[in-house]
Every structure is written in C-alpha cells, then in structure tokens.
Amino acid sequence: MIQLEHRQFFAERWGFVVFGTLGNVAEDILKFDFSNLKYSLGTGLRFKFNKEESVNLRADLGIGIDGSTGIYFGIEEAF
C-alpha cells in the first residue's frame, strides 16, 4: 500500500489536508494482483485545538474507487 498526505495550515489554528491511497491485499504475496489496485482520495479540515501539544481536531471526507464516500472525525493525527 502507498499512502500520501499533504497538510498545510493557512491560519494560526486552521489547516487542510489532501490525501490519496493506492493498494490491494492478497492471502499470499505470490497471488498479489497489481492489475487490480484499489484507490481512494480525500480532503479534510484541521483545527489546532492545543497549540502547545499540537493536538488537532480532524474532519475528513474520503472517496473510494466505486464512488462511495465516508466522513471521519478524530483527534490528533495517525502519523
């Protein structure tokens, strides 16, 4: 799997993110099919809740290969 993400703050506490993921799974490395990769794209908004600890509140919108969407809320970043 490959995942890319860009975060950018445009104000003291407000920022945005754009991200993309490409990958697939298989029960065995020899059965991995590179011709059937899945992808998703998305964007999100960040609010720096605690500047001293760099704690962000997150709201993200993800769009899958089949057009499905998901809205995700969270505290802090995954990485």
UniProtKB/TrEMBL annotation:
Designated name of the protein: Bacterial surface antigen (D15) domain-containing protein
Domain of life per record: Bacteria
Organism: Aureitalea marina
